[in-house]
Amino acid sequence: MKILVPVDASEAALAPISYLEELARSGVKLEVLLMNVQPRFHRHVCQFTSRAARDGLRAERSRAAMARAIEQLSVRNIPFRVFAEVGQPAERIAVVAEREQVDEVMMGVGRHPAWLRWLNPSIAQAVMERTDIPVTVLARGHAGAFERYAVPAGVAGLAALLLAVE
Predict the structure, then answer these.
(1) Nearest partner of 97 among 52, 141, 128, judged by Cα
(2) For the chain, which domains are there?
(3) Which H or E element spans position 86?
(4) CA 117 to CA 122: how far, in whole Å?
(5) Mind listing the pLDDT tens digit for each residue in 11-45?
């Protein structure tokens, strides 16, 4: 089974690795493609830096972002290949998934407050919109006090206000 695992430097991005370990233990033959996407630099930055310097910085950032994932996959004896891409994360993830003909994309994400989900659509959602390849999203973390209490109280208050108006 060929699985693409995009990672950044966050702890949440490592969530798929423990799941992959369980799959490997159950006898599933895995080929993991580990990738990191670095952003393009603004044209004003490009104007004052060399291409070699920018490429070197991106390579360094990619190595740092993937270091813990590489270590964890190595310790668990899960075979993997590494990719570093440049561009918009969702677009590059979808392109690599299609190009490499993966069976699945596994993404670890952190939990965000409910109000932030409306303002900033997740990369995982954007990947799902760009490809027909299955995307598994593994969340890590827990909801904070604001999300557990203030948001539901606010929604209940709004519902009571709407009922009172009618």
Answers:
(1) 128
(2) 2-165 (3.40.50.620)
(3) strand 80-86
(4) 7
(5) 889 999 999 999 999 999 999 999 999 988 888 77
